[in-house]
Amino acid sequence: MAKIMINLSLRRLYFYKTNNLVKSYPIAIGKPATPTPTGHWKIIAKMKHPGGILGSRWLGLDIPNGPYGIHGTPHPWTIGKSISHGCVRMYNQEVEELFPQVNVGNSVIILSSWQNGEETPPHAEPDPGQPSVNPGNSSTKTYIVQSGDTLWAIAKRYNVSLDELIRINHISNPDILKVGQKLIIP
Questions:
Q1: Which of 85, 87, 52, 82 is nearest to 71 (CA)?
Q2: Active site residue 123
Q3: pLDDT by residue (tens digit) across 6-59?
Q4: What CATH number has the domain spanning 2-111?
């Protein structure tokens, strides 16, 4: 299944098929007054030739208070900048390349940065809220933090000690979790 991950700090979109990175693309993101919302979203609409500022293709997302989407642009000089009203802009030829490879219902994960602080993308994250086996250690799982999650609730859900969850994830302030943050579940 296809999946998109977006790193806002790097201004890059990463396209995955069956958890394998296929290609990455430079993007433009929301300006500080109208930032691109982080979180786990789904593609809910696809449109060819939407016109105007949307360029040649539109991939609508289920982000509340939208519309928000991934789209082309008639202004290619904006790519790489923080300039939109919250949407993700791509070069027209690149959104045209991506468009036929994604479907309504595919996941789009928007993160402010990779949690590991590296500039290379991680393997595609599991669907939100679903633990997955950590490939480096078959006895651990990972979990992607969702809006409203607390460490206490996650520890309870997976029947693990709160102290162990804090220790294994090197969490300095257990009161602060970020949507999209990846946690190791011991």
A1: 87
A2: no
A3: 999 889 999 998 878 889 899 999 999 999 999 999 999 999 999 899 999 999
A4: 2.40.440.10
71 assigned to active site: yes
Provide CB contacts within 8 A for 163, sequence distance 6+: none
The torsion region of residue 97 among left (phi > 0), alpha (psi -120 to 50) and beta comes to alpha
pLDDT in tens, 122-169: 655 444 444 444 444 444 577 777 767 788 878 877 788 888 888 887
Annotated domain spans of the chain: 2-111, 132-185
Point out the catalytic residue in the list 40, 49, 87, 123.
87
Output the CATH code of domain 132-185. 3.10.350.10
- Tell whether pTM > 0.85: no
The active-site residue, picked from 40, 49, 71, 85, is 71
